[in-house]
Write a structure and sequence with these properties.
The chain has 201 residues and is mostly helical. It contains 9 helices and no strands. α1 crosses α2 and α6 (131-143) runs parallel beside α8 (164-181).
Length: 201
């Protein structure tokens, strides 16, 4: 088994935050239990990491980003009728293998797009998405740590149409993106909240 390094406290907290934020976005949990769920997830990882430390180094397998991607992808279909139990079961059983991406119908045909043409294509693609896919796409833009000016205007406009719970989730996602960006850009703007609340002219 290839060695997987122990997550830092900061990365573990980011991963737990992403899980609970997506659970809130898809109506799986209420915002008022967010910190409880986050704490349970972190406690579980601490316990599992302790078990790994008792194993020979070559046998240790810590929670990693392959597993995390799979957990996040399962959130929309997660059954939370019995509380956090289903999530804990999912964390315990998620496998350690890389995700195999389906490349069918993903062949690039013709010239590459740049500038306004690329923006138009991104907007066209966004408009063909389902409501859930649009939420995921908005979240991806906000957490990517790219400059605020790089977030497409159609993403901001769509966020304005969301309910208060989802807007709050988007604010949290933007904070995650800012935290990542601080490693690279100490002067990242924090005016995103104004963009969400600004009335459409």
């Amino acid at each position: 088994m290839s060695k997987v390094n122990l997550m830092t406290k900061e990365i573990a907290e980011e991963c737990a935050e992403e899980i609970v934020n997506k659970a809130i976005a898809y109506g799986k949990i209420k915002p008022n239990v967010k910190n409880i769920w986050k704490g349970e997830i972190l406690d579980y990882w601490i316990l599992q990491n302790g078990k790994q430390e008792s194993l020979p180094e070559f046998e240790r397998a810590y929670y990693n980003l392959f597993q995390h991607s799979k957990i996040v992808d399962k959130i929309p279909s997660l059954n939370t009728n019995n509380g956090i139990g289903s999530l804990m079961d999912l964390l315990a059983k998620v496998d350690n293998s890389p995700i195999k991406k389906n490349m069918i119908n993903k062949q690039v045909v013709g010239k590459k797009l740049y500038g306004p043409e690329l923006k138009d294509e991104r907007k066209r693609e966004f408009n063909t998405m389902t409501a859930e896919q649009k939420i995921d796409k908005c979240s991806a833009w906000l957490t990517c740590s790219c400059p605020e000016s790089a977030i497409p205007s159609f993403v901001i406009e769509h966020i304005k149409t969301l309910d208060d719970v989802l807007k709050e989730k988007m604010r949290e996602d933007f904070k995650v993106g800012q935290d990542k960006a601080r490693y690279w850009n100490k002067n990242l703007s924090s005016s995103f909240f104004g963009l969400i609340n600004k009335e459409t002219s």
